[in-house]
Amino acid sequence: MSCHLLIVDDHPTLAQGLSSLLSQEPDLTVEGLFASGEALLGFLAQTPPPTADLVLLDLYLPPPLDGLTLLPQLRREWPGLRVLVFSSASSAVLVSQVAAAGAHGFLDKSAEARVLLAAIRAVHTGQLVFPGRIRPRPLPGAALPERLAPAGSTPGVVAADVLLRLRQLSAREREVIRLVREGHSSRAIAGQLSLAELTVSTHRRNILHKLGLRGMAELISFAHEHGL
Rounded to 5 degrees, what are φ and ψ at 82? Predict the structure, then answer.
């Protein structure tokens, strides 16, 4: 059975690469590429309705409609549309939140092409595709909340504002976070990244400010929780 896909990702090079990969498969047809949630909703709201079976959705989209905010709206307004989240962030709490928000699957962006293709076909045929540690229950007729829980209201819940904070991090800052999480000092990080120690210290301060954290202990805990 042919599957008509929509790709939502604000990285044009990645989106084009995915489109090229999927278009080589005889049973997969890419109907559109979208760089924001608003662009996707505008396309879906057309009359007559466009042909679409499955959305390949990144979580990190420009505000106000990041992936987690968008998911419940897609479930309410287009309940027949399948959604496979394809993201670089894959912590257990985030995957659980994605499942609770109405996604039919979750796949890390590091997955091989054959795994991605298999996941798309499985979700299209009605299966739920999540990491083994997640066991979501299919709730086809259940009403979904109109908004995500705010940070701190429910243990283990990742709020949409966390995704917006994560989007502010540069690639270099993510490298610094990874090395901090591994226990390296500023001097050691400077040596590994060929930076001045003062530059690393500045990166650390900026990271704490962007993420709204108060120190290295909170940063390490946050990094573990969100797969940084």
Answer: -85, 145
How far is 15 from 56, CA to CA, in rounded Å?
10
Domains of the chain as residue ranges with CATH: 3-132 (3.40.50.2300), 169-226 (1.10.10.10)
**Residue 87 CB neighbour total at 10 angstroms:** 20
pLDDT tens per residue, range 15-32: 999 999 999 999 999 999
Question: 26, 35, 24: which is closest to 57 by C-alpha?
Answer: 35
pTM of the predicted structure, to 2 decimals:
0.62
Q: What is the pLDDT of residues 169-220, one digit of tens each?
A: 888 998 999 999 888 999 999 999 999 999 999 999 999 998 888 888 888 8
Question: Quick one: three-class SS letters along the chain?
Answer: CCEEEEEECCCHHHHHHHHHHHHCCCCEEEEEEECCHHHHHHHHCCCCCCCCCEEEECCCCCCCCCHHHHHHHHHHHCCCCEEEEEECCCCHHHHHHHHHHCCCEEEECCCCHHHHHHHHHHHHCCCCECCCCCCCCCCCCCCCCCCCCCCCCCCCCCCHHHHHHHHCCCHHHHHHHHHHHCCCCHHHHHHHHCCCHHHHHHHHHHHHHHHCCCCHHHHHHHHHHCCC
